Amino acid sequence: MDDQLGLSLESAGRVAVGSRAGSLSGVLAAHWEWIVGVLALAVAVVAFWVTLDAHFLAHPGWSAVQRADFILGPIGVGLYWRHRRPGSRLGWMLIALGLCGVVYIGSAINAPLPFSIGVFWEVPIVLLTEATILAFPSGRLDGLAERGILAFAVLALLPGYIAIWLTAPEFAPSFSISGCRGVCPPNGAAIFSPLPWTPQLVDELRAGVVVVALSTAGLLVWRLVSGTPPRRRALMIGAPIALLYLLMQATFQGLQLFTPAEASAGAEPIKGLIDWTFAGARSALWYGFLFALIAAELYAARVLGRLNRDSLGRPTLRELEGMVRGPLGDPGLRLGFWRSETSDWVDADGGVLAPPHPDQRATEIDREGHAVITIIHDAQLSEDPELLQAAGAVALLTLENTELDAAWKEALHELRGSRARITRAGDRERRKLERDLHDGAQQRLLAALLRLSMADELADGSSELHVRLERAGTEVQRAIDELRELAHGIYPTVLASSGLGGAIRSLARRSPGNVTVTALHARKYPAEIETALYYCCLEAVQNATKHAGEGTPITIRLGETRGQLHLEVHDNGPGFDPGAASEGVGLENMRDRVGAVGGHVQITSHPGSGTTVTATTSV
User: Fold this and answer.
1) What is the pLDDT averaged over residues 109-119?
2) Contact 480, 472 (CB under 8 A)
3) For the whole model, what pTM was predicted?
């Protein structure tokens, strides 16, 4: 029992420890950027105070600022770059450059081995700086020239620098403001005898630095001159600062290489200017990368705002493609849209999308985890992903608006068709009911009236029976009249026989009010249009008679203008405030009937100035 309890406790302990370890690793993974940033700040503070206390250096104060910046600047910019462009390797390169600055703290320690290790680390800093410049802004060394320059820099500098580091009794710093006041600490890494040709090797290394710097500068100039607008825009801020750094580096090393010792005193003012300019350009390098990224984001935001404003005009997909090309500076840009029915990409015109050219790339835009848009663009636009994201967002928004607009139009078309079908079905039922009343009940009543008349003739002069038969005949005649009036109201025969004009004249004659037809366009129209406008007119006349009184003058006008049929019913009644009154069933019926044939009804009225009902539809 005790053994089982012990095993249970041990297992629980292992689970608890594993859970804590997993929780800690999860926290580190989720917040590693903040952790690295805080550690970089702490190490930068340490570097500042260590260097500030290094009185053997020529410029301990400025060197302290420089060493702190060598750590905090690249790591901070690299973290921001990683956050904004997670797919770019440039952020990792800048972080690695800042970590090299941590080892460089040793060059401020007055002890042989830490000092020599710190000074030696200048070479990895220089090489990684060159790699970062060559990889800007994509973070990749794609071209043969970039790889060749970096390979030459490694082979030309690293072996010779290692040889001097392991043999020279003194190993002085080579950065512009990092020299010593007098004698630097001895080289604690020298484990071999000094080389007799060390001075010549030092000159060769300086010459190699000059060649690498000028080659990199020439490559940057070539990129700016020959690049497409997207590449020039991506290089516009970072590249000039990098050029300044490279030219200052070449000038600094060349001055030490080619200036004779006897001329050094006379060149001291110029040398001092170059030293401090070189130091400033080195620190400005990563901030140039930072400003380049911020400028790209600001430009992308402006482009996004402009495209959003332009997209309010409801452009077609082809017009959208033209809208995107200008701000992105890529005349060959094309948009592709995923067609789920055939599982392929189509262009803005609906044809099969052609594959990208060798100098183009395809960037897909996802919606809910599925690619719906692809942007085929200049390969150099990949160096400016914010623009692609802005263009993709607007393209996706426009596509969704187009889909919604198409669905809305389809639904509206279906709704109109449904309303028209319902109206036609109602009219068919009205006509059927009118025929049934005319051919059925009305005929039976006429037959009954005839039989009553014949029975009256056979009454043999019986006055009481005659009176009763005559009274019954009168009631049947009234029923026939009411039935005829009811059938006429359900669907007037004159509408089918004489059209809308004849039906309106008949309506005016039968109306108990003071109705006048002042203008009447009498040609025939489709049956559903005539029916809709007739019942709209009937409802308007009935409303005017009811609310304004039977003696109120009512005017009916019917006319056609430029393919539009207009019906107007105006009364001189007291009017009302349409905003304060609620629409009744009659007004709703008018709107529904006219709307079913693609028209609309407008009610215009003011207290004291009468009411006008206007129905308009296309013919």
Assistant:
1) 93
2) no
3) 0.66
